[in-house]
Amino acid sequence: MAMNSNSKKSDRHYLTGREVREIAKQNAKEMRRLEKEKNRKLPESAYVTKMRDDGNILEIENLHSYFFTDQGVVKAVNGVSFNIPVNSTVGVVGESGCGKSVTSMSVMRLLQGPTGQIVEGSIRFKAFDFKRDEKGKFIPVYERDANGEVVMEQATDKKGKPMFKNGEPVMRPKQLRDENGMGVYEKEEKVFDIAKMPIKEMYRLRGRQMSMVFQEPMTSLNPIFTIGDQLDEVTLLHVPGADKKYAKKHSIDMLNLVGIAMPERVYAAYPHELSGGMRQRVMIAMALAGQPRLIIADEPTTALDVTIQAQILTLFNDLKKKINGSILLITHDLGVIAEMADYVVVMYAGRIIEQGTASEIFHKPCHPYTQGLQKSKPTMKSNEEKLFNIPGNVPNPINMPDHCYFKERCSKCIGKCSGEYPGMYQVSPTHFVACHLYASEAENAKQ
Amino acid sequence: MFKYILKRLGISILILLGVSIILYVLLRCMPSDFVEQKILALATNGVTVTDEFVEKMKASYGLDGTILQGYFKWLFNVFRLDFGESFISHREVLSDIFRADRIGTSFFVAAVATVFEFLIAIPLGITAATHQYSFRDYAVTVLVLIGISLPSFFFGKVLQDVFAYKLRLFSIAGMTDANLSFNNPWDEFKDYIGHMALPIFTVTLLSIGGRMRMTRTNMLEVLNADYIRTARAKGLSESKVIYKHAFRNTLIPIVTGLAGLIPSLFSGAMITEQVFKLTGIGSYALNAMTQGDIPVIMTYNMFLATLSVLGVLMSDLMYGLVDPRVKLA
Fold it and tell me: pTM here?
């Protein structure tokens, strides 16, 4: 990767014309290569893999997502690895610009190309997808009687009239139908490496296997389509054989599920006629409509006021039980994380600096940054006049130093901190921290 | 809704009155009027011109008296649907302008060119936006920029040279071939198209640029919107995302752009018509302008002003149709 073109740059705050041109040239080359990779055709075997641990639904390993800007390459996500176990909520915390959202966008492959690209790493996702025959068609499940024989029924044409051939009724195997009258198809569990998938194949996963609730409910709905139109789209897309009537019924069920009082009225409304909280509920309903296994919630409560925040969070907790899925919750609000998450990942400047169970992170934070975050949270108990804040700023994302990124702001620096970037030290079976302070502790824990 | 339209029409009449005052005053303030040009022509030919004769001439063309008197006389006649007669041709202005080979020609050229403009520019704008910073984007942008920058008289002449003179595919200029007699309407139609093809091509190519750039900018703005990301996250295919979710939003400014198009359909392409020697309204109006033919210019410009006002009203109504956020009242 030739991206240290600006290493000769000293402390100047500007780029010379030659440097800009050099950066643009290298970026263009790199972006073209990655775009080509994104759009090429691959056999399925190239991106179907196995999970490391079968108890996980998502495994992110050494993920690098970069933005190729004219000022240089921004390493927004720089070697992130974590897992989401089945039926759990994993919270990702960190301050603005630390790469939380970019991580989630990478999982959905929604990074805005050509500047935003996944450069390296793998994202393994366990999908429960429709089984396909050689022609790529779904395989129906047929109804069987008590003896295990396939039940036959008279075939009908498109208008629903029974079909006859030479006076004899045409028979066909009867497809099993679910409680909504939708045909059942065979499904199988398959593990995809999302980072290597051609972008076209992502349409099999988005909405159906994983869906996303965005930060901005005010702008995340298309202003010129009704809520109903936008919700129906998901059902029509992901439920094979669904028609308009079924889609409407399903959409209204979904609106009911997220606690909207007058679903019929909201169904016919345009986004601008709804409040922010209502829109976020609609967004959640939309994310649920395809019955995904993983919901990524990217700061779902940031744009909402506190009372609505509480409602939305309760809604998420209820829904997790109802849909039996996992949630990747991204937020900078530690309170939200404490309430919701089973596991917590703390990110700083594109890297994970600490991860563990929620109770470990909250009761025994190890990294000086996590400790600082905890201290900067207002509490009812403290009598201090001023709220604690971590001094300094996040380093420039284009020219990251070789040592620990937090060194300049850290109050517990030791000599080793000027050395290379700390690895992940294990302080308990589930608790990892990237800080030199815990090197000896980790050694002891091993012995 | 009906009330809204009535209100807007009422305001339109006031606007048109204002426009007519400004137009008339400006025309009368021009340094040399029709009569002075006539007299000058006579004088250069050695005819002695008396002051009495000049006064008589001015009176006969209605150019005596103050500007205000002249304006109200014009306005009074207009309310009686009398638009006067052309100073140059001495024919009724209305019948002179609204002739098939006059405004008909201009309308045909403009209408066909507009259809092509939209058919070409909008897809180009969309591909350029969806493939931003790619070779395709740069290629389209550069070609279109060339189209914008070429002056129509130059580009028209190049087309004449290549397609009419060298390749002999189309006729060089004029409305019909003088040495042909047509036996059936099909031949006549073919000849007409042969004469119109190059002007249409010129007008289309020169107008694609602006429309394409507008589409590209709008499309880029919409494609970066949050709701497009939502549409992608739903699992919609890229074509559905672009042609349903993004394009419907891009359509809003395109529809408003239609307002400016209605008058331009009838205004004629002045320079292009001159280059290809068409008898369209553009060259006719230009001629009237240089000679100070006040009734023709007033009628032509008031006609365009009316169309502009109606066009704006239409686009506002269209806005209400395409964008659910806009409520007209």
Answer: 0.81
Q: Which is it for strands A210-213 and A152-154: parallel, antiparallel or unpaired? A: unpaired
ipTM: 0.84
Kindly state whether residues A94 and A192 are assigned to the same domain: yes
Together in a domain, A100 and A241: no
**CB pairs under 8 A, 24+ apart, for A256-259?**
A257/A285, A257/A288, A257/A319, A257/A322, A258/A282, A258/A284, A258/A285, A258/A288, A258/A315, A258/A319, A259/A311, A259/A315
Nearest by CB to B234, which of A207, A223, A272?
A207
- A345: confidence class by pLDDT, cuts 50, 70, 90: very high
Across the interface, of B132, B227, B235, the residue whose CB is closest to A203 is B235
State how far residue A167 is from chain B, nearest Cα, in angstroms.
Answer: 44
Report how far residue B313's alpha carbon sits from residue B32's, in angstroms, rounded to the nearest whole number: 37
Inspect the interface and report whether the beta carbons of A207 and B133 lie closer than 8 Å: no
Q: Which of A289, A322, A337 is the last residue of a domain?
A: A289
Q: What is the mean pLDDT of residues A90-96?
A: 90
Taking only the tens place, the pLDDT of each residue in B183-224 is: 777 878 888 888 888 999 999 988 898 889 999 999 999 998
Residue A247 structural domain:
223-289
Residues spanned by the domain of B154: 97-281
Is the dihedral angle over the CA atoms A258, A263, A267, A271 positive or is it negative? negative
Question: Does residue B162 belong to any structural domain of this protein?
Answer: yes
End-to-end CA distance of chain B: give it in Å, rounded: 6
- Two structure tokens written together for A151: 């039940």
Contact A272 B325 (CB under 8 A): yes
Does residue A182 belong to any structural domain of this protein? no
Element of type H or E holding A118: strand A116-130
Q: For residues A307 and A323, is the Cβ–Cβ distance under 8 A?
A: no
Q: Are A194 and A47 part of one and the same domain?
A: yes
Largest Cα span, chain A: 92
CB within 8 A of B78, min separation 6: which ones? none
* Residue in B224, B236, B248 closest to A237 by CB: B236
Question: Do both A202 and A327 map to the same domain?
Answer: yes
The answer to whether the CB atoms of B249 and A224 lie below 8 A apart is yes
Confidence class for position A12, pLDDT limits 50, 70, 90: low
Judge whether A174 lies within some domain: no
- Which pLDDT band, with edges at 50, 70 and 90, does B178 fall under? low
Q: How many residues does chain A have?
A: 447
List pLDDT tens digits, range A356-403.
999 999 999 999 999 888 888 777 776 767 778 888 888 877 888 888
Q: Decide if B16 is inside a domain.
A: no
Is A75 part of a structural domain of the chain? yes
Spell out which residues of chain B touch residue A287, defining contact as CB-CB under 8 Å.
Answer: 233
**Token pair of A204, please?**
């099999």
- Judge whether B265 lies within some domain: yes
pLDDT computed for residue B51 by the predictor: 85
Number of domains in chain A: 2
Q: What is the CATH number of the domain that holds B178?
A: 1.10.3720.10
Residues present in chain B in total: 329
Cα separations in angstroms, A147 against A142, A144, A174: 13, 8, 15
Considering the domain architecture, whether residues A198 and A251 belong to the same structural domain is answered as: no
Closest CA to A205 of A123, A140, A268: A123
Q: Is residue A216 domain-resident? A: no
Which of A27, A33, A224 is most worth mutating to test chain B (most B CB atoms within 10 A of its CB)?
A224
B76 found inside a domain = no
- Do A191 and A261 reside in the same domain of the chain? no
Residues of B with CB under 8 A from a CB of A: 132-134, 224-227, 229-237, 245, 248-249, 252, 322-325
Count how many Cα atoms sit within 13 Å of the Cα of residue A12 in the half-sphere of its side chain. Answer: 10
Nearest to B236 among A221, A223, A233 (CB): A233
Domain count, chain B: 1
